[in-house]
Amino acid sequence: MNINNQNNKGTVWGRRSTFVLAATGSAVGLGNIWKFPYVVGENGGGAFVLMYLVFIVLIGVPIMMAEVTLGRHGRTNPIHAVAKIVREGGASPFWKLIGWSGVLAGFLILSFYSVIAGWTLDYFSASANGQFVGLTGEGSGAAFEHLLASPWRLAVWHSVFMGMTVVVVGLGVIRGLEVGLRLIMPLLFVLLLMLLAYAASVGDFGAAWRFMFVFNPAGLSWGGASVALGHAFFTLSLAMGAMMAYGSYMPGGDSIGKMVFTVAALDTVVALIAGLAIFPIVFATPGLSAGEGPGLIFVSLPVAFGAMPAGVVFGTVFFALMVLAAWSSTISLLEPAVAYVTERFSMSRARANALIAGGAWLLGIGSVLSFNAWKDVSVLLGMNVFGFLDFFTQRVMLPLGGLLLAVFVGWVVRRELLHHEMKPRSEMLFSTWLWLLKYLCPAALLAILLAGVWDQFS
């Protein structure tokens, strides 16, 4: 595996396919396997899926292409990449906020995402030890509540998961990110397909298929559309600095449009397969429903696995899948900040990695305590630490960052620069992409931002 260098501007992935693996790893996370199935269940099944797919194509893909384009042109961390493009184009320094916002959002999300990811390690261990066998719904709910009520247990799993992330990022772009993701992502897909085959054989696959893909106009709603639009944006890991950082390692001859469409397609396929792997089990288990909400994975599925043939094996496979999905995402959340500190302060990667991860780990302890000792302690706007970080990043920072990104690339960055980096095979597709960035994406992201804030305070 060679370490290539693109005109001495920075490290480039040793293999062209690595960007797809890395970006897909960033996009595929708990949002696909934990959140997507339950929001589909809560928002009308097939109608929601259709809206989600439309928004992926019209909003998610154009924003991702814009972010990757900035990263590849900058050939550096997101903060310096945006600053370079601002300087080259003589634009207002205000736009540098895009780079800073992405890196900061990634850091803040990492702090509490690692805590949630720790739950997957706990459940992987519990399933492997046969603790789900004969589990009742009441017992499963009590087990989950017991996990959340134990700060030491949450802190240990949070620490382990952060340590796993540090190991991969600390090894560097080639030995760490590239090698790690080449191992993690194929294994993730293999486990997902195994789970799909199991669900099809023991569950009600026909009911799951009809629920997800039979379009019912009655399922359309403004609330569902808002959730679908927000999830389409967030599931692709946009405005977190990750896509810009990974784009900076992309070889110059690669087609950005082709690569981004591949990533979006893989991310979407994972979400759909996750639904098809989970809903057959839910529909085949008495007492469970598709609209169980966030507890669908951590409360309902353990009951189902505990009652099904080979449930111990496939329950363990399922939670191993969740561990891998979360791991690939935490790696992408840590990388942009590490890249910035390494380049800005000429610091060794190992030291920068330890510094940034240590800060995220410490902030994450606040989220650990938010589920128990500090559960009712308000830090701002009536929310505890976890509640505020979750709201501020996902409802404010990400849509605002995406909005600024769309306006900056659509209206401020020179068309010649974009054309040079995109290398479009069709002028019509290039013009369509710019139109979406200029008009549709800003309107949609502004709607997400306002709806998220309104929902919180209404």
Describe this entry's structure for a reader.
The chain has 458 residues and is an all-alpha fold. It has one domain (4-457): Amino acid/polyamine transporter I, CATH 1.20.1740. It has 18 helices and two strands. The chain has a two-stranded antiparallel ribbon. Helix 7 runs antiparallel to helix 15. The chain is globular. Mean pLDDT is 89; it is low at 1-9.
Give a brief rundown of this model:
This protein is mainly alpha-helical. The chain is built from 18 helices and 2 strands. The chain is globular and about 65 Å long.
Low-pLDDT residue intervals, each spanning 5 or more residues = 1-9
Strand order of the largest sheet: 1-2
Tell me about the largest β-sheet: 2 strands, antiparallel
CATH topology: Amino acid/polyamine transporter I
By CATH reckoning, the class would read: Mainly Alpha
Rg computed from alpha carbons, rounded to a whole number of angstroms: 21 Å
Run of helices and strands:
EEHHHHHHHHHHHHHHHHHH
Number of strands: 2
Overall morphology: globular
What percent of residues adopt helix (DSSP H or I)?
A: over 70%
| Second-tier CATH architecture | Up-down Bundle
Topology:
Layout: E1 4-5, E2 11-12, H1 18-27, H2 30-42, H3 46-74, H4 78-89, H5 97-128, H6 137-148, H7 151-170, H8 173-202, H9 205-213, H10 222-235, H11 242-247, H12 256-283, H13 295-307, H14 311-344, H15 349-370, H16 385-412, H17 415-422, H18 427-457
Antiparallel strand pairs: 1-2
